[in-house]
Design a protein that fits this description.
The strands form three sheets. Strands 1, 2, 3, 4, 5, 14, 15, 16 and 17 form a nine-stranded mixed β-sheet that branches. A four-stranded parallel β-sheet has the order 6-7-8-9. Strands 10-11-12-13 form a four-stranded parallel β-sheet. The protein is 41% helix and 22% strand. By secondary structure, it is of the alpha/beta class.
Amino acid sequence: MPDAVILAPQWIAPVAPDPRVLTGHAVLVEDGRIAALAPLDELRNSRPETPVQQLPGQLLTPGFVNLHSHAAMALLRGAADDMSLHDWLRQRIWPAESKLVGPEFVRDGALLAAAEMLLGGITCFNDMYFFPEAAIEAAQLLEMRSVHGIVVIDFASAYAAAPADYLRKGLELRDRFRHDPLIGFCLAPHAPYTVSDESLQRVATLSRELGLPVHIHVHETSAEIDESMAIHGKRPLERLEALGLVGPELIAVHAVHLNEAELQLLATRGASVAHCPHSNLKLASGIASTARMLELGIRIGIGTDGSASNNRLDLLQEARCAALLAKGSSGRAETWPAAKVLQSMTLDAATALGLENRIGSIEPGKRADLVAIDLSAPELQPVFEPLAQLIYAAGREHVQHVWVDGKPVVQKRQLVAEGARQGLSEVVGRTSVWHNRLGEILSG
């Protein structure tokens, strides 16, 4: 018989098909999948030989899905604070990346980021960065689910010389890992202001041919829109629409400065938005119109962005901020309620990535990507409504256990795999080297 366990928490939030929280229920995990969700007594009677893992005071949810990240930028945390996006990119980030970025940098940064995310309940992250094979190596060491961008950008880097070179390398990597159940891919043109029409048209064609999502920064700042109007005579989203890129496959990252027609367009075409509220606030980019997006039925997932513009890869903190901004900006306290926020950070993000049939909810047949959050801590008492407590009061420090594909990867707030712990320890030991190199670059 395959390895199996019955997980018995105090509460279960399946997300779908019913968003209500269950009590007195348990989840049978078998051979990496959710085999059953049923009353605990019923599972015990039907499977008396299967061990039961009691999770008192804990809420079991689907694993969190980080819809937008630049994992390797964990090594740039704190290197460019209190700057606008334009200055942040041109004065600090791009100069640093031109000197530092290579496979070792990406592996070390991604390992730091992946460990931080996993310990905070993120079981899957959607990444956009150079040398994605190095980020894959980090995710594999932690036995984490990940989706990697086939990056396209018009300027040369240490990774590739030109748009065609970026695409070739990314597609070859996808072919190499296409049968790995924990690794997926997106097409990832960086942004309309760094990618030509020709390259964007090629991305649109590949997306249709290969069935891949398109993960792109868009309408992050008002300056981006002004620049697009000056160069192309069109707003960025209008340009993407003309090039055939606005559809169900589109993941519009940030989407801060959208007018009503553009919101309607995203809704009509079934596109998704990756909302990164802390990054948008810290870079003073603005506040996305998420309340209106929700009214129109636009699918919203939540992302952390990278550590250089957020400083903290904490999806629970991101979700709380997202909910409060939507309420405050709309003047309606009922906007984006806790159950819908949890759906955004699980099933909606998974759907944007084309993974809704595998992860995102606790339903029989799906893979067992799960998180147990301890709501018994004194600072979380009393618990009147578990989902409200999760979104508005709990933090990543309350994540106790994490499973990916049915395998325990975090237990009692500790990484399970010895290789993961050892690898992380080695990277932490090297951070002083990266710190010194970065300091030399930034000091001129």
